[in-house]
Design goal:
Helix content is about 35%, strand content about 20%. The chain is α/β, with parallel strands linked by helices. It has three domains: about 120 residues, no CATH class; about 200 residues, von Willebrand factor, type A domain (Rossmann fold, 3-Layer(aba) Sandwich); about 40 residues, no CATH class. The strands form six sheets. Strands 11-10-9-12-15-16 form a six-stranded mixed beta sheet, with helices on both faces. A two-stranded antiparallel sheet has the order 1-4. Strand 2 and strand 3 form a beta hairpin. It starts with 18 loop residues before the first helix and ends in a 7-residue tail after the last helix.
């Protein structure tokens, strides 16, 4: 005989949290630049991201937001030494398991037979979290980019997405301008009314209506260009000095710009360059793991790499968006050695950097500079860069950086914000 055992239903106090809610709570941890780590080793791509660190970050974020039930919080305060076996520990493990099951993180677990980490996989959260590693997926980066973009644009009031508008008119799909006579090579976006009216004017109203080649009229629309962009992020030591984290807001803006381009400007391209003592291009999925370091600012090497990347792009517009907070203080010499001088504006470094800016202009590359500092000498340097390349200079803060950068990208208006 079969027996059915009934028990009292106990609701999960954290059941209402979705995976997206969890990502929002973990956003600062996942995009950390090293600002809060006093033992931070510069230019390290954070290889020690363990499940235990993720667990502690989520616990701390939920406690700050007051999302932990009072009885569980009291239990944690009274028996902190028994936390590993507590109900709260199990509940947070289940939340992290939900992130893995929904594809926002992958887990690398130790392989006891080979003494190494197994392949990334979502799965159960039981095991040695102290040695298990995790990686955020493209799905998580996409969500973080969407949320950042939404938050930045929400602060601007009403804003509609578009394309890169220019003053030129061309035949296309969306009609905005007056019709004109068809010319060979035009998109056949036919204005039927104007075409028939032209035929009637030529031959009179009769059936059948005689259409000639000269009667064809096409609608004009605003010419919308494609753009290749290299986003240059300064990750020198100064980006986390002086009591302010400037690199994390820059990373968030880069994520938002990536999401904006992919969803609203599919014909555009975006590449990411980090510049410090030297410069290198990193894949966009690696952006979340990028951290500050090494120490100096080799702006010239970043511009040289950006030019090599843009030379491969066949777009109507090519531009460099440079986010920096410091003066150029390093230079790669012809023999490969790096010349460094962090004291003042070194004449050699500045002159070679400005020569590279002039080379960008000759190659038809626009440079828009977003300066996160307001030192008098730096302002003069940025103004000189702007004058040479006929770009734009924005003297902003980490809090307004995203608004200015995104609106500049969408509107492409010539304006200076001071």
């Amino acid at each position: 005989m079969k027996f059915v055992k009934y028990s009292k239903y106990v609701a999960d106090p954290l059941e209402g949290l979705s995976a997206e809610d969890l990502l929002q709570l973990l956003q600062n941890f996942l995009l950390d630049s090293g600002f809060y780590n006093q033992y931070y080793n510069f230019y390290e791509m954070d290889p020690e991201r363990t499940l235990e660190q993720l667990h502690q970050a989520l616990l701390e974020a939920m406690r700050e937001q007051g999302m932990i039930p009072e009885e569980l919080l009291q239990e944690l305060l009274k028996n902190a030494e028994n936390y590993q076996d507590s109900e709260l520990r199990n509940l947070i493990d289940k939340l992290l398991e939900r992130l893995a099951e929904e594809g926002y993180i992958t887990i690398q677990r130790p392989n006891p037979q080979q003494g190494q980490l197994a392949e990334p996989r979502p799965g159960a959260m039981h095991g040695d979290e102290g040695r298990a590693k995790f990686e955020i997926t493209d799905k998580a980066l996409d969500f973080l980019g969407f949320k950042t973009l939404k938050d930045l644009l929400a602060s601007l009031g009403k804003s509609s997405f578009g394309r890169h508008d220019t003053r030129e008119l061309a035949t296309g799909i969306e009609s905005h301008g007056a019709s004109r006579r068809y010319e060979f090579g035009d998109t056949l976006n036919l204005d039927v009314n104007a075409t028939l009216l032209s035929a009637v004017q030529r031959h009179g109203l009769k059936v059948p209506l005689e259409l000639d080649y000269a009667d064809l009229q096409v609608r004009q629309c605003e010419y919308q260009s494609s753009c290749a962009t290299v986003l240059m992020l300064d990750c020198s030591h100064s980006m986390i000095l002086y009591g302010e984290d400037r690199f994390t807001p820059a990373k968030k803006v880069a994520l938002a710009l990536t999401h904006l381009i992919r969803t609203q400007y599919p014909g555009d391209s975006l590449h990411l360059v980090l510049f410090h003592d030297s410069a290198e291009e990193i894949p966009l999925p690696e952006l979340a793991r990028a951290r500050v370091g090494p120490y100096y600012t080799n702006t010239r090497e970043g511009l040289r790499l950006a030019q090599r990347i843009l030379s491969r792009q066949r777009k109507d517009m090519r531009q460099v968006i440079m986010i920096t907070d410091g003066k150029p203080s390093a230079l790669t010499l012809d023999d490969g050695r790096i010349y460094k001088n962090a004291f003042g504006l070194d004449p050699l470094v500045v002159s070679e950097t400005l020569h590279e800016v002039a080379r960008c202009r000759r190659n038809g590359i626009l440079i828009n500079t977003f300066m996160l500092a307001s030192d008098y000498g730096l302002v003069n340097f940025v103004q000189k860069v702007t004058e040479l390349c006929r770009g734009k200079a924005y003297f902003t803060t980490p809090y307004t950086l995203g608004q200015y950068l995104l609106m500049d990208y969408m509107q492409k208006k010539v304006r200076h914000i001071h």
